[in-house]
Write a structure and sequence with these properties.
2 strands; about 5% strand; 434 Repressor (Amino-terminal Domain); mainly alpha; about 60% helix
Length: about 60
């Protein structure tokens, strides 16, 4: 899965640190998700989507083969 978290976070002017606090995870977790090194749990995916004003489907996109 690819995601648009970094782009949407920057559009809203939110730092990784701020987003991590809002979602109850570490900044390193946000960084790993943005760099496709970690797939979040479903509950974290919903928290990220809520904080960024998107649906989970809009936030995460299947990778093209």
């Amino acid at each position: 899965m690819e995601n648009v978290i970094r782009n949407k976070r920057k559009e809203k002017g939110i730092s990784q640190e701020e987003l991590s606090k809002r979602c109850g995870v570490s900044r390193q977790t946000i960084n790993a998700i943005e760099n496709d090194k970690y797939d979040p749990t479903l509950s974290l995916a919903f928290r990220l989507a809520r904080e960024l004003g998107l649906t989970v489907d809009e936030l995460f996109i299947p990778k093209e083969s």
